[in-house]
Amino acid sequence: MEFFTFIYQVLWGDLITIPLPGGSTLGLSLLVLILVPAGIYFTVRTRFLPFRLFPEMIRVTLENNQRGKEGEGISGVQALIVSTACRVGMGNLVGVVAAISAGGAGAVFWMWIIALLGASTAFIEATLAQLYKEKDPLYGGYRGGPAYYLHHLFIRKGSRKKRSLIACLFALSGLICWCGISQVTGNSISSAFENAFHIPPLYTTIALVALAAVIVLRKHATVKVLDIMVPVMAACYFFITIFIILANASQLPAVFGRIFQEAFGFRQVVGGGIGAVIMNGAKRGLFSNEAGSGSAPCAAAAAEISHPAKEGLLQALGVFIDTLLICSCTAMIMLLTPASLTAGLEGMDLLQTSMQYHLGTFGVIFIAVILWLFSFSTFLGILFYARSNVAYLFGDKWIAQTLYKILALIMLFIGGLAAYQFVWDLGDVGVGLMTIFNMIALFPLAPKALASLRDYEKQRKQRVTSSIDDQKEQA
Fold it and tell me: According to Swiss-Prot or TrEMBL, what is its membrane topology (predicted)?
């Protein structure tokens, strides 16, 4: 435990402290020092992709994404749904609440900035996952992710080595992280149902594990369930938030004014709080959208899609969905609640109080159900991620796949009954190590992803030009 605590502090603790006016300090962790500059670098190298190609992201999402000929793979949009299921979780609810509680409304602005930068990183890693994917003999379709493009980076063709050490470390870090998240998921759901419905955690946990087992132990049930669950839960949360916003429309100018004022405000600088504003928004944004961590590429690689860059664009859009849409929804629910009602509250208590203010008893029930959907979909999504990592470490063996699923179900059960801080930190350590190993590959392999982007844009331009010429001839 001391070893993992040390690793946690190295990854997430303040590695560098910068003094600011007013007595505040800006603490920069190792992951912030890696991911933020990487996001800036990739944004410049992709020629500001998040802004320039946002309409193209929407177009690719709306076009008809069918499965491949074998019918066992998943479409590009299905891969986006799986990655969204993992991004949209506890962090979008309690995580945003914690960021605003510690950093004020200005933290929301910095979450938005991190999302804009992270979209380019998400594009690079998802495109690489497509470029280095391989056939999946167990589940059908394709598999891949950072373990696989790390393998190609360090193992030359013709080498007798079957595995790369760095790729194995990434895969192992992912499996450790997702076990930790399984425990957190169980605890989040059982706690929410106990608070909202007074159901004992044991009953909730037994039902949760039984339902999860029925889904994850079947070969293709996970994607089918997420196909239905993710769009429904995201749409419900979004439209409920829109209703709350419209009901409080007169307060919106003040809310946005508060966000921008506290992001750069003189009062925060003088009061010594500007460092907390920036870092709480940045850290929460990085943790929530997962860009650069190497998680989403495990789903992106499974997509059967006509061009690798298309999946990159889809995963870039996933960062926007997570942070600019879902996280912003939570922020608006909070910021439109009178501060006198939420003073001294934290976590789910604060969020449930806000929902009760806006929607009465229905609000408390709604947020408990939404938390269940968000957390449960995350659990299903991470087990989809785990497939490729288990296969890389242990080969194409059903026994290895099944044993890891059983381990995750056990962690889900344990988490439902009690919260262990060590396991929460274990998940943070896992995602931190994944990020370190993933970034080792992103910089040297980025030119291949950028070449894929240029090729896609060239093909797209040729198709558009040809289409216009055909229309002219017909006219």
Answer: Multi-pass membrane protein
Q: Measured between alpha carbons, how far is residue 361 from residues 60, 196, 358 in Å?
A: 40, 9, 9
Buried/exposed 276-287: b ≥16 CB within 10 Å, e otherwise: bbbbbbbbbbbb
Predicted pLDDT of residue 455: 94
Q: Return the bridge partners of 168, or none.
A: none
Give the whole-angstrom CA distance, residue 466 versus residue 351. Answer: 53
* Owner of token pair 């079947």: 218
In the chain the domains, ranked by start, together with CATH numbers, are 29-452 (1.20.1740)
State the Cα–Cα distance between residues 131 and 134, nearest whole angstrom: 9
Residue 140 Rama label (left phi>0; alpha psi -120 to 50; beta)? left
CB of 122 closer than 8 Å to CB of 291: yes
136, 147, 442, 138: which is closest to 312 by C-alpha? Answer: 442
- Cβ neighbours of residue 43 under 8 Å, at least 6 residues apart? 49, 50, 116, 117, 119, 120
Whether 292 and 119 have beta carbons less than 8 Å apart is answered as no
In angstroms, rounded to a whole number, what is the distance separating the alpha carbons of residues 381 and 408?
12
Asked if 308 and 452 count as a contact pair (C-beta separation under 8 A), the reply is yes
Polymer length of the chain: 475
When mean pLDDT is compared over 29-38, 174-183, 246-255, 263-272, the highest value belongs to 246-255
Diameter of the chain measured on Cα atoms: 74
For CA atoms 212, 213, 215, 216, give the dihedral sign.
positive
Predicted confidence (pLDDT) per residue in 38-60, tens digit: 999 999 999 999 899 999 999 88
Degrees, nearest 5: CA angle 12-16-19 = 125
Three-class SS state of 423: helix
Helix (H, G, I), strand (E, B) or coil at 366: helix
What are the pLDDT digits (tens) for 304-316? 888 999 999 999 9
Q: Does pLDDT of 168 surpass 80?
A: yes
